[in-house]
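Lab meeting tomorrow. Look over both lines:
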Amino acid sequence: MISIVEVQETNKMIREMNLDVRTITMGISLMDCAHTDMRVFNQNVYDKITRSAEKLVKTGEDLERQFGVPIVNKRISVTPVSIAAGAVHTDTYVPVAEVLDKAAKEVGVNFIGGFSALVQKGCTKGDRILIDSIPEALAVTERVCSSVNVGSSRSGINMDAVKLMGDIILQTAERTKERDSIGCAKLVVFCNAVEDNPFMAGAFHGVGERECVINVGVSGPGVIKRALEEVKGHDFETLCETIKRTAFKVTRVGQLVAQEASKRLGVPFGIIDLSLAPTPLIGDSIAEIFQVMGLEEAGAPGTTAALAILNDNVKKGGVMASSYVGGLSGAFIPVSEDHGMIQAVQRGALTLEKLEAMTCVCSVGLDMIAIPGSTSKETIAGIIADEAAIGMVNNKTTAVRVIPVIGKEVGEMVEFGGLLGYAPVMAVNPFDCSGFVNRGGRIPAPIHSFKN
């Protein structure tokens, strides 16, 4: 049983350290919306989402007032559309994206995820229709987020899909070039995607989930930073214990909000995702945590070790605070959403290659990174393949959310606005990988995947 006293203990964290519940995400199954006629399917989808999430935003706002805990976003995730719409007779799922967008606006959520496909072993007809629909879908909607899972530790990496996604990302960038290619900020390519992730842009409601569920994502980089400032100069054991204890307290706040939201909405509680997801605000940065740990800048020697410490102990603290910790849970390193990371890039301390090394131990991957709009589709596919390989071999989730900003080159700044922040365009390796990417087929799963 969680008492209000535990939440009150964190008031200082909320007021001074940017602690927030980053999102309450309602997962909704669309499996019973299936129909061969697009109009009927879309009406079923709209009706189910608006009925299920009718009170989601108001409930979040009521909980904010009652507990004094900022709940920044209210979101929805749905069954991957390539599955839910698989029976529809069509050659495009853009109308489905438009209906998702309409439903999201109707209930007042800021994002809806699930315009997604799972193609780690190959594409169905529905998968291919969805992937081909992504550029237009993200161009004509405001709140729809898309993801494609191209690999897993069990299945290997679908390199045909990787190659295709390099092209799709560039098409999406071109379709939204008047807005600094922002469509790509709503598109994630995964390896080992999870079914209960409440964070966008990669959220979808997995087929192994319940009919409807509440997942909560909590974020507190500023809280961890302040706690570590109290133990400057202490040894690594003290450092790790401090992170664990602080993560425990942060997770308990999320647990209370999740349980209350579940109770009031009459929807089962799913998981708490304790993720250190930064914002562009000063004091809410993963890079600043590295500096408190003793690094001059993110990217300095020791950064990967520091991130490994942070990620591992956040998870340990979170698991002790809730029986149902899930999603991604750990440290995110999105460049555009972290002013400390942006500063490190501008100072030359942080490169794409160093970020890739850091993804071996973080909770996501290459996230919200602006690259030159002239980058080739083969190079983007190569970046995706590298990240997918890290995820596949290490049995962890990795992802790529890169934004080739049409018309901009290395060093120029891009403004995305809101939580998406701003970013300098980063350099990519100029050497060609097309001969590798164009081989096609599937990279087999690693030997340690055979565990039966």
Notes: The two ends are 38 Å apart (CA to CA).
